[in-house]
Amino acid sequence: MRSLRDTQSAFSAAIRSGDGGSLASCVVAHGIAPERRIQIYRNNHQIVALATMQATYPVIERLGGSDWFRQSAAQYREEYPSRSGDLQHLGDRYPDFLRAALAGTAHAYFADVAALAWAYQLVLTAEERAPVDLAVLRAIAPQDYERLVFMPRPALRVVESEFPILAIWRANQPAAQSVPEIRLDANPSRVLLIRRNDHVELRELSLGGSLLLQQWLRGVPLGAAAAAAMAGTAAIAGTAAVAGTAAMPGSAVFDVQSCLSDLLGLETIAEIVPPHTGL
What we know:
Blueprint: H1 4-17, H2 34-56, H3 58-64, H4 66-79, H5 94-101, H6 109-125, E1 149-152, E2 156-161, H7 165-171, E3 189-195, E4 200-204, H8 207-217, H9 222-243, H10 256-265, E5 269-273
Antiparallel strand pairs: 1-5, 2-3, 3-4
Helix pairs in contact: 1-2, 2-4, 3-4, 5-6, 6-7, 8-9, 8-10
C-alpha cells in the first residue's frame, strides 16, 4: 500500500506534469474519471499560479508581453516548483530564473527589474518597526560613535543594478501616461524601497548612501561601515576613470556626514545599538 507521503508526492508530481496515470488507482471516481479529477486540480493550479505571478511581476509582463510572460512563468514553475504552501513565496526565485534565461540578450535587464519587484513584495509584507528616536544619540559620547550599530527597519530593501531600473519601473506603471525613451546604458540605479504608512516609497540613493546602508544591513558598526563605503566609492570612481566613462554625479567623493544625515532623514533606522550592549 502506498504511504501518505508517497501519495502526496505523486499528487504533487501529477499536478506539475499533468501525468496522473500512476495516481489514478488512488482516486475514487464518483462519476468523474480519476485522470479528469487530477486534470481539474492541475488546471486550477496553473490558473492560480499564473495569477500570482502576474500580481507579483506586472512590470515584467508589460515589458515582455502577455504571451511571453505566460511561457516564462510556466518554465519558471517547472524549474523552480513551489516549496511553500504560501502563494506569497511563489515568485521568490524568478529574478534568478530570468538572470540565467536572459543572460547575454537585449532583455537581460528584466532580471534586475524583477529583483526590484520582488524586493517590493518583501517590503510590503515585512515586520513593522518604527524609526528610531534620534534623541538616543545625546546619551552617547562622540568618541563612541564609530562603534555604534545602526539597525535598518525590516520593511526596507536596497536593489542595485547597472541598468536604470527605477526609471523603467516608473514608466511601466498602470498610471503612467506615456513611456519615455530610456537608455539602458544611462546611469545605474541604487534603489531604496521603504514602507510608509500607506505605500511603499522607491527612491534613488547616492552611491555613498547605498554603500553605507548596505553595510548597516550586514550589521557593520558605523566606523567600519563608513570606511567600507569610502573604499567602495573610490574603487567605482577609479574604475570609471580607467574605462574613460563618467562616474555618476556625486560618486567620486564620499561624504559620511551628508550620507548619514540623508539616511536618518529618510527614517531608515529602527535602532541604534550602543557599543557597550554588544550584539
